[in-house]
Amino acid sequence: MIPADIPALLAELRRVGNDHFRCEVKRSQGGPPATLWESISAFANAQGGCILLGIDERSGFTVVGVNDAGAMESHLGAVCSEMEPTVRAEIFTATVDDKNVVACYVPPTPRDQRPCHRRSLGPWAGSRIRVADGDRKLTDYEVAILLANRTEQKYDVRAVPGSSFADLDQKAVSRFLGRIRETKGELFRKVDDERALTMLNVLTVHDGDLVPTLAGLLAFGIYPQTFEPQLNLTFVAYSGTEPGTLGPAGERFIENRSVDGSIPFIVNECVRVLKRNMKRRSIVSGIFRIDEWEYPEEVLREALVNALVHRDYSDFARGMQVQVEMYPDRLVIRNPGGLYGPVDVGALGTTTVTSSRNKALLKILEDTPHFDGHMVCENRGSGITRIRIVLTEAGMEPPEFIDGVSSFTVEFPNHALLDQDAIEWLQSLDNRPLSRSQMTALVMMRNGAVLTNGTYRASTGVQDSRTVSRELRDLVERGLIEQQGTRGTTTYRHSDGRTFEQEEDLFTLTRLDDRDAEGSASTADAPTTEELVLSVMSRTELSRTDIEQQTGLRGHQVLRALQSLRDRGLVRMIGRPRSRSARYVATSPAPAPTERS
């Protein structure tokens, strides 16, 4: 951050009305706040953030300044030095509205050094995490998993007391050994089965007996839940967009299942249950339409395997299951334990660099045949990349990855990105061919997204940054998008210098002008898209479909207008964003459309 960024940041905070995930303000006129260390710890254990001293949140983020900026900077530096590990913050004083504001940018602490905590309190009492606009104390499990992540994880190679070789599916083990001896060379052909399985971490010695490891039991167990009852998967299909929403008949959910067995069995059974609760629909693929499940099967398998293989198997997490939740507008898969190692959530799917807390389990499953003959996983760091590519090919939105300290979540929107309206818009361009990744990026930018080389890769599944640069340069040269900045600060957005809302207004004026040619309307009093939407709103709840039908606008126009009206506090949403089941209601009586001169 530089001083010039502070006014823009304050403007954003005033618009939102409170602090947020990356910024905390404090009045600080009575001296340094006692809770400074909490915010520093919280930002360091998340994605980093900025602390502004001399800003009064209660009076609308008014700049009140600090009395002694030099002393405040020194105090901030001292607090950063009291943290473990020491926080190397960027601290400076900026003049805003003729007053001194002290800014402190806290960088994120590397994953293998967390939790960042106050040294005098220790990690259990002195660690915080940033949640929305506040700082929360880390739970015992969160502290335990962060401390465990500092070292190599070996929970998957521990013996399972009470189990024996007879608890493994002998046919599955035989197929595994057959593949190992076929692909690993002469080494495993020279040793007997027990020796080979020990070398491969399927079996281990415990109290003088050869017993399955946790990895061996999860990969080949007849019923692993005999020994670990909670190491399974739960599936719930909800009728509404939130867990507490009741269905038409008062039902809480459509289906509620607990899926037990080995990892290959759980994946196969969960996909079967998901299909039972999915619909088949027409998916846009280029300029064609094909019948496909709501969520491609390959995507489901990859996501389920990732959740089961990369989850936390420490003692703290043995009572937690992998959770699959299906809603009308999205599919959520959640597993215990956040990301492990140096992998960042923003880089998922854009690089093959991988880090796993369950190395032995992954190694076993890469040579474990699935029911269809393919291996359960590749262990090449390509699973999420493949998920992005398959979703792009199906014309669907990219998934959202949420990395919490105690859990990792992937959310798949049940929404087609390249719908018919988007396809018609793409076909109206310069008639030169576009790659599928260019189509996806163009529609995202048309919908208001600002992309970089990295977010382009993350959204389209293209891994090579040089390919991305070439595709973006092509779009810039064709005048379809605009480039801003250079080198590491380069961003790309929809061209013509118009926001999406302005483009909608232009479309509306053109549409009304066409009607005027038929004597039914005049462009002199053509309302904007927002005014059209607001004119049909009342205290009665309306869906997006209702508003589309009453205004004659297209779906993406209504969606953007509603977002703008919500930002201005004129419309309130009931439900989840982008959900077709969400409903909207005006917060005040709708005004008459504004006349144009």
TrEMBL record:
Residues 576-597 are annotated as: Disordered. InterPro entries: RecG_C_sf, Schlafen_AlbA_2_dom, Schlafen_AlbA_2_dom_sf. Pfam families: HATPase_c_4, SLFN_AlbA_2. Gene3D superfamilies: 3.30.565.60, Schlafen, AAA domain. Residues 24-136 form the Schlafen AlbA-2 domain. The keyword ATP-binding applies. The keyword Coiled coil does not apply. Keywords: ATP-binding, Nucleotide-binding. One of its GO terms (molecular function) is ATP binding. PANTHER family: GLPR-RELATED TRANSCRIPTIONAL REPRESSOR, SCHLAFEN ALBA-2 DOMAIN-CONTAINING PROTEIN. This is ATP-binding protein. The lineage of its organism: Bacteria, Bacillati, Actinomycetota, Actinomycetes, Micromonosporales.
